Records
---
Amino acid sequence: MPATIDKAPTSEPEIPDDHERLDAVEERAGRTATLEVLIMVFAIGALGAIIGLAVLLVGLNRDSGNRSSAPTAPASEAAASDGAAEEHAASGGAADAPVAGVEPYKRPDPALPAVPAGAVKKFKVDVFEHVTKVSNEKPATRVWSFGVNGALHRGTGVSTPMVVEQGDKVEITLKNGGSKKMDVAFPHSIDFHSSEVAPNKAFKSIDPGKTHKFSFVAKHPGVFMYHCATDPVLMHTGAGMVGMMIVKPKKLAPVDRELWLTQQEFYIGEPGKDADATKMAEKNPDVIAFNGFADQYKDKPITVKRGERVRVYVMNAGPSIWSAFHVIGTVFDRTVIEGTTGQDAQTVNLAPSQGGWVEFTLDQEGNYPFVTHGFGDMVRGAVGVLATENAPKGEGMKH
Ligand SMILES: [Cu+2]
């Protein structure tokens, strides 16, 4: 600025008359000054080096502190935005680190839901994204799920089944996150294998907060998969967006008890975070579960009666692993899998997306485990127990 520039120097040194003496004095003074300057430079240099090192160390410390705490930042933001407290250990990535704000476990009732009343079967399908455990042994994970007509299986990773009868008109209203509680972050869609419709229209993706309505006639009986079809479909289905629609045949013989079981894989990422896409691509699930939680019906068995006729509707929702559904201690009298009726079967073979039902009676009081007989998959959680009313309690798998 001009104000500063205009300031003339006021301490201009005076020039003495005796030039010789002055030169000598100046020379000595100059040598002394040079020495002093050298010492000063040295001292400053040393001090600078020390300060520099200290700054560097502090900087490194802060930097590493930032890195280790970085993963919590998005979680805190998410917590602030949806009101659900969510955090995990700042560093080390401990797999068993506690995750706050995890939904409490609630055992899904395996009894088959009823067909909705009314001439047109109306399903209001909610998409929600939630943090839940899917196994007692594994950290909580963020699962993307479907709820139906207000029934949301929070506390597990399973989506709600839908049941209709052959020939029913089905009306679907898909709501991609109808409220803050649904916590939806991505576009989603729903694809029904039980329908015959133009997928580009009916199964289109919709943004968070949007609604999409479509209908179809359920012409074919069977146990059909439904799933999110939004790209990348492996990510959406591997994150949990799979379920079953049962289309009962018109003249299905009544049985004493009807149950539903969805076999599903879970690929757990960072604790409390979205599923691990690399594990999905490698088909290496952490958990394979019936109805969304590893071993849950082994720990809390499904009660049946000795001698009653049981029908179990089974869907292998994958997304990638086969199911070899088997009940230990019985033989299936009748099986209906993908339109083929069978009998005298020990195990049914279900590719990812396939389903059907099996019928049997348990002739003696006891605990009858059901499994995928692919045992490497069973040990990841695909096991449960059917316990007759007078079976020894608390014995689970013992036999
Ligand atoms: Cu989706």
Note: The pocket of copper (II) ion is lined by residues 144, 188, 228, 230, 236, 241 (CB under 6 Å).
---
Amino acid sequence: MAVGLGGFAVERAAAQNAGTPPTWAAPFKRVCGGFPLGISAGDVNLDGLPDIAVVQTQKQLSAGDPRTSAPAQVLIYKNTGSWGVPSNGLSAGPHWTVTLPDAIDPVLIPLHVELVDVNDDNYPDVLVSVGAAEDPTDPPAGYAPGLYYFRFIPALQVFATDPVYYATAVPISRFRVADMNGDQLPDVVAATDGRAYDYSNSDSVRIFYHVADPQAASPFHPEEALLHVDPNNDEANMPTNTCVVGNFHRRGGIPGGTADIVTDSMPILSNNGNASGQFPTFTIYPQTFCSGQSISIDHDMTAGNFRFMNVMTDIATISGINPEIRVFRSPILAGGTPVLSHDCLTDVYPISAFCGEYQPTIKLHGIANAMLNSGSYLDLAATGCDPYVAILLGKGNSKFQIDTNDAAYFVSAMPAADELFAEVAQVIAVDLNLDGKIDLVTSNHYDLNDPPYDGTISVIINTTP
Ligand SMILES: [Ca+2]
Ligand SMILES: [Ca+2]
Ligand SMILES: [Ca+2]
Ligand SMILES: [Ca+2]
């Protein structure tokens, strides 16, 4: 008995040691249009080195935009492996480029990209979503929101120029790729509410299920309009712009290895499995909000196991105004009504106190999780405090450590000369130089008030001893 208690005590203590903040090399950047948003890592050429894809929007995103015409594209930077000093092992310009069709109206914004192998040839393909019109009341001509699939052609080492297009009734913001129906084929789960607008109440999740043949020319079924996730039907205060997939509701094991979904407004969409038909059904369990908790168009979410040795997936979110990170835990036990647990006081981590003069104006923040320091637990990296990425160190018990008076918890995403110009949007965590330490890549919107109006991506190499 005493041994057991002692072992428990040691494990408990270990699970609360977050360690010290990671250290970083000075960031370097690549110019990529005016308004880069979603980023994704994947090894396009199968050389073992992760390459970086970023979405850039078309011209005239905002009134007064000084840029001239440019198409919406996915720019993919090749990892050259030359990670010396200075560490700049990304190709100087995009090595692969995917251009979205002209039919997409300029005010529709491609928001999210994933490099993922859709057709089972091992080579990552491009999935890119289109959402978000600028004007909330006036559907533009050529209105064409949805999902675009560009397959990679290994023999030519290029991406196809003729995408397969999957229309959605409403714009997609972010999406996730996971197997939702247990057939081992990747499906796409899309949060469809546009970004800043609604033509109609559309807080819903749409799933594009993979067809049975991985190499089919059109690999997905048309959208499966799934579930309206706003229990109050209160569109204005509860946009659905992002979602995560994972094991959020345990029923003695997830049927068929399928995944549950949680969206911005934090309901659990519990996957009931695939027994009765081609596609699973889902049961929605709404979440109660804390007083003062806001969901906005710039919300983002990340899912991971933030509790040491726990099989359930937890969630961290980044809000927009006065950015703060909130952490939600999945219920561990079966039975009862599954809701995420969240302490309105102790599971909230404001980061804006550090920002000082750099109050963000962009309204698209990002959050990612990875082991960033030498500790054993998942940490968080979040934008929203320009030009910094805030680092929250995991304690292994779903709690995180950050000191907004300590610059060690904030790493600048921009070279010093550019710090005032950048609005850091999205962040991903990936080991670019294969040294076992997870690096960061951000997309940075240019500032309308400050030349040179270049959007960039930044690479921040982890130098933690
Ligand atoms: Ca590569
Ligand atoms: Ca492929
Ligand atoms: Ca599937
Ligand atoms: Ca690294």
Note: Residues 150 and 161 are 7 Å apart (CA to CA).
